[in-house]
Amino acid sequence: MIISLTLIFKKMLIMQSTLKLILNRSCKAQHCRALGQYYNHKNNDYRGQNFKNKKTPLVIGTAITSLVGYYLFINKNQRHVYAKEAKKEETNAGAYCKGLPSYSMSEVNKHTTKEDKIWVVYREGVYDITEFAEQHPGGDQILIAAGGSVEPFWLLYGIHKNENVFKILESFRIGNLKKEDQVQITDIEDPYAKDPIRHVALRPANMKPFNAEVSPALLCESFLTPNDLFYVRNHLPVPEVDPATFELEIEVEGTRKTVSFTLEELKKFPKATITATLMCAGNRRTEMTKVKAVKGLSWGPCAIGTATWSGVRLRDLLQKVGVTDDEETLKHVQFEGLDFDVTANQYGASIPLWKAVDKRGDVILAYEMNGVPLPPDHGYPLRVVVPGVAGARNVKWLGKIVVSQQESSSHWQQNDYKGFCPSIDWNNADFSTAPAIQEMPVISAICRPAEGDVVKVENGFINLKGYAWSGGGQKIIRVDVTTDGGKTWQIAKLDDQDAALPPRHWAWTLWSARIPVDPKLKEVEIWCKAVDSCYNTQPESFENIWNFRGVLSNAYHRVKVKLGQ
Amino acid sequence: MIISLTLIFKKMLIMQSTLKLILNRSCKAQHCRALGQYYNHKNNDYRGQNFKNKKTPLVIGTAITSLVGYYLFINKNQRHVYAKEAKKEETNAGAYCKGLPSYSMSEVNKHTTKEDKIWVVYREGVYDITEFAEQHPGGDQILIAAGGSVEPFWLLYGIHKNENVFKILESFRIGNLKKEDQVQITDIEDPYAKDPIRHVALRPANMKPFNAEVSPALLCESFLTPNDLFYVRNHLPVPEVDPATFELEIEVEGTRKTVSFTLEELKKFPKATITATLMCAGNRRTEMTKVKAVKGLSWGPCAIGTATWSGVRLRDLLQKVGVTDDEETLKHVQFEGLDFDVTANQYGASIPLWKAVDKRGDVILAYEMNGVPLPPDHGYPLRVVVPGVAGARNVKWLGKIVVSQQESSSHWQQNDYKGFCPSIDWNNADFSTAPAIQEMPVISAICRPAEGDVVKVENGFINLKGYAWSGGGQKIIRVDVTTDGGKTWQIAKLDDQDAALPPRHWAWTLWSARIPVDPKLKEVEIWCKAVDSCYNTQPESFENIWNFRGVLSNAYHRVKVKLGQ
Questions:
Q1: What does the pLDDT look like over B96-121, one tens digit per residue?
Q2: A1-30+77-194 under CATH 3.30.930.10, yes or no
Q3: Is B327 in the A-facing interface, judged by CB distances under 8 Å?
Q4: Which A positions 420-439 lie with beta carbon below 8 A of chain B?
Q5: Is 0.90 surpassed by the pTM of this model?
Q6: What three-state secondary structure class fits A378?
Q7: Chain B: closest CA distance from residue A59 (Å)
Q8: Whole-complex ipTM
Q9: In what residue span(s) does the Cytochrome b5 heme-binding domain sit (chains A, B) (predicted)?
């Protein structure tokens, strides 16, 4: 049986009360327009007519160093290469399994709750995932696939297509799907098919959604990270937004008004520019993983970048709709993205209201990055830049703002991007006990040399380069480096630093050091640690800050290198 | 020869151009009144008539627990006990030394600069301290005694009266003072003679000036620290200030006005109250000393306390004199205390202007502590409370405010209370390279049990109590404790916490924990670490944060205890 995408969606719509609720809630908002287009698929166009064949604005970097220039050749075939890599992930999971009972799809459909057991289908396999549901890293979202096939969702969240997930899934195998009910998905267009072309230097941590960082050596080459080399952290497909019809909606909870602004109207507000570093809360996660496995993308030390961001001050915009720094009832500003999944869930996050209205908060609704319109991967046409705060709150493709008494209810605000004690794991985590990460702690990294490099010793010295940053508007006041396990520390030179003073110092510091090494050694381990203007410093090692989500990985950065002559 | 105090001061006045400069500068300011009284000594009254026989306002605590009550018996003889202890510090330093040449005081008088060599006298000893001058922990202040006797200064700075200092001094011995020039100081009244009577539970880290803290067990008994048990960190003798004649002077640099306010006038501004923790930047220094010796008072973990502070908002007062949150030229607010040394140097410090004018800065000129007038040791009649910022900036006995382009030039702002890399010591320190400590990093401590205690194990568990705090308005979100070196961490219960939200959460958190211990063990080491709302956490150990001044001692707190049944 070949089943069309339309049928899958129809089935889904009657399948889940959860989904209905989400749709109802969503349709009240401005984004229901986009949502309508999303589902109004004709001729198998997954995105709808309005979004079809729009040209993606392509921004080719800003001022870059000669080294960066070397990498700047855009590989036109990159998307094709990625597609091939994705294919490699496929395995025999879900294949017919001899000796197990057969179930019809209508039988599977009945198992959608914990009480009735939660069943799902993958290809020919039927699985009872009741026990696993509570441990699902994506939280309750797993319930949206309950009683049906997980395949449409896995097309969206490519992270599921890996051996570990297949292994977990197969451990819950209870049967085979009857031949006549098997779905051969031939006509779902890949929701990521329209993602922009990316720079070849961006090394993907995940393909769908796209998440990538450059190499450390490349990252530390320029104080302002070229747009093309800026780390990309997408949670969903990149939406194509028509700037001509785009409107930002602002809702103020309670009796107060709801207002919309076109891009042109937003650009009439005074244009503000800030220089700010953005960093994913999962930056440097791979190092924490070495202590004990964590759930999350394998970020190296380059899920961080610095740019100038220009746009309208959120403070100005909120004042326009009557929310000032004297507001006492409402406490949070929620941001909703225009990036949706197949269940109409859009990306969302919130920040405390004080940060948005404070004259020193410097929150910008940016339409420019490093002097040019935002690239599609970075939120075109409009994103929030909340300087000093975790990347996850800097919502891209901003569609709606809600000034509220409550935090955003989104998965990413409530059940992700939070820190926990090392003794907590997925089995005993209670997300309500930890605050959402906002201001980020102090961090640093050695960018050159990289782990395993052979480093030339010149007159007994080696050269290092790196970055350091702290959230909350704090400035880096010192970076210390050592090659003898902390017996002696050398002070690094702070080469590049923004002139802004704390508590409004939003950008990273690039540093370098020339440090002595014992000429008798063949190998050394280099450590670095930074101190910020609150004299906060980094924890020494990952053992005591380990957390099951692998966020806030800010222990000393340690790089082992070989010494050459 | 018996020399009177008047003569000593007369000699000093012609001796040092440095001193003249200080006096000239000082006399321009409001405090020249106090200064005049200070030097206008008749009948050997060191402080002057106006300050004589004023009754010291004595404040007997606020609400306290039954345990605290036990300690609350005021030992009327305490001052006497202290005097005895001070006597013990005296040794044979400065005694006649056979075989060394003899010098007259007029010869000594010629040696006041590095070029001419710097000589000083202590009792019968003559010393060439040229080499030592640059390493003097008190910086340039040593030059004020150059070419004369150090004794009047050592009466003021009691810290010099210890074996180490005597040993250092004797290592620079060059001769004996001629018999006829020897000074027998009989008529200098102890500048600390009028210091208030203190609570017997305050354990002195230093007597003159008075610096003291209570025991950890007592400290964690109440969220608001009783005034009598609040740590005292004085840099100079406690001045007696007459509230009837007291005036606070505010100078705004440039062409703008200078205004004075009486206490009554200050009390007419809206009264603001904040709950804030104050902590000395040297709190927990004794632990850092174990890595390598540092210079500074031996503070345990109790140079910290929490109180409600009521007074006038500095923001309101500055607005009154024309300095608002829109000020762009002036950058700092300097505070001058009414506590002076014999050279007319008063205590001083400054904070960045933004903190003073920001609506979320909450800087208070407090005239009340825990609902009663400030006690003498805590700044009566007026002190600055800069919440979230190191104790040293919370200037007591506030006499003058200067809104300036510059930081305070005081010793304590420029050459003290700064953090350095572990590789820096007195020999290579350049104080201009480090920023003055303002906002404090996250810290915590175990208050019960204390090091060496025998702890009762109840059903395999032991009970802990402690505090945690972070500067900059950040809130403690978690405290983790371990008894197995970090293999497993337990989450402490946050018992007492102020309701204020970051970035205006100024008070500490009191916590407790009931944690399992291995019943086979006879001894365990307990560690604690805190995480604040920026997810900053403490460094693990002191080795890598060691600094020669022993400030910012916020590594994990580790307490070794014996287990009993």
A1: 999 999 999 889 989 988 889 999 99
A2: no
A3: no
A4: 421-424, 434-435, 437-439
A5: no
A6: helix
A7: 34
A8: 0.77
A9: 100-178
